[in-house]
């Protein structure tokens, strides 16, 4: 028989709340079996949860995570999934590079505004 996990075991293993796991379940990302009122998660659910959390750390949306997970086919080379992931990584990298440029420009504007304020204070006669 394959390994199964309770919601609390998965929450503890991945240092997340049970509410987070239920949220992913509500979104259709996890599909646990039920034994009465108890959720029973399979090895597949555990792998999906791990991939979701990794995707979130990389900045992917839940929809992007789901898209990639749904492309996975056990026992195949999954070239289509790998290429889709590479494409998403390229887009994410481009977005981050643009954000870095935007941050640098904002820092320059702040430096300029700060220097103007300092110049005004330096040239102001406070003895009056």
TrEMBL record:
Short name of one Pfam family: MerR_1
GO MF term set: DNA binding; DNA-binding transcription factor activity
InterPro entries, A to Z: DNA-bd_dom_put_sf, MerR-type_HTH_dom, MerR_fam
Coiled-coil ranges (or none): 79-123
Keywords for this protein: Coiled coil, DNA-binding
Organism whose genome encodes this protein: Spartinivicinus marinus
Domain HTH merR-type: from-to ranges: 4-71
The organism's place on the tree of life at top rank: Bacteria
Listed name of the protein: MerR family DNA-binding transcriptional regulator
